[in-house]
Write a structure and sequence with these properties.
alpha+beta, Fumarylacetoacetate hydrolase, domain 2, 6-stranded mixed β-sheet, 4-stranded antiparallel β-sheet, 12 strands, globular
Length: 203
């Protein structure tokens, strides 16, 4: 199982980090060891002094596919969830300055939190999914999938050009604006189409 992440898929988030908009989706990968343990707090890693939350809509692949056409992409996933791409922003910024890969900042142990999975047939129009993240009871990130620069099906088609998708693979589809630093005892709660998808304590 692999975790495939899409970066810079919401224009407002690109602007808030002063990044350049790409002509194609930005892809990076997390190993399976990045999956956070369920029902446990998230522990801020000791190597970062600026750990950020990035809430994202997730897809779980349910069949093997390669070179998938966008019009057939809907056949390759049946569950959608909400999760967090935890990012060591201080380390990422340094790596970017040096022109180096992001793995230390993005793919460390526990950096991929996965919430509850929902059958996609229960969620209505997948092109207009609403989702949000609350931190200590306050909404800090909120968007809907219509704001994606690349849609769910376009992401699957693009990713499958380079990587064979396998059953159980998870795709993180990108984060909207509103990312911010986490501190100990922060409480996070995510909602997808008005339904609670996860709650998490930061330690």
């Amino acid at each position: 199982m692999k975790i495939i992440c899409i970066g810079r898929n919401y224009a407002a988030h690109i602007d808030e980090l002063d990044n350049v908009r790409s002509d194609e989706p930005v892809i990076f990968i997390k190993p399976d060891t990045a999956i956070a343990q369920p029902n446990l707090p998230f522990f801020i890693p000791e190597f970062s002094n600026e750990l950020h939350h990035e809430v994202e809509v997730l897809l779980r692949i349910n069949r093997v596919g390669k070179h998938i056409q966008s019009k057939f992409a809907y056949k390759y996933y049946d569950q959608i969830g909400l999760g967090i791409d935890f990012t060591a922003r201080d380390i990422q910024q340094q790596l970017k300055l040096e022109g180096l890969p992001w793995e230390k900042a993005k793919a460390f142990d526990g950096s991929a939190f996965v919430g509850k999975w929902f059958d996609k047939s229960t969620l209505g129009d997948l092109g207009k999914l609403t989702f949000s993240l609350q931190k200590n009871g306050e909404v800090v990130q909120a968007a809907d999938t219509s704001l994606m620069l690349w849609s769910i099906d376009e992401i699957i088609a693009y990713v499958s050009k380079y990587f064979t998708l396998k059953i159980g693979d998870i795709i993180f589809t990108g984060t909207p604006a509103g990312v911010s630093q986490l501190v100990k005892n922060d409480r996070l709660e995510g909602h997808l189409n008005g339904q609670k998808a996860f709650s998490l304590i930061v330690k």
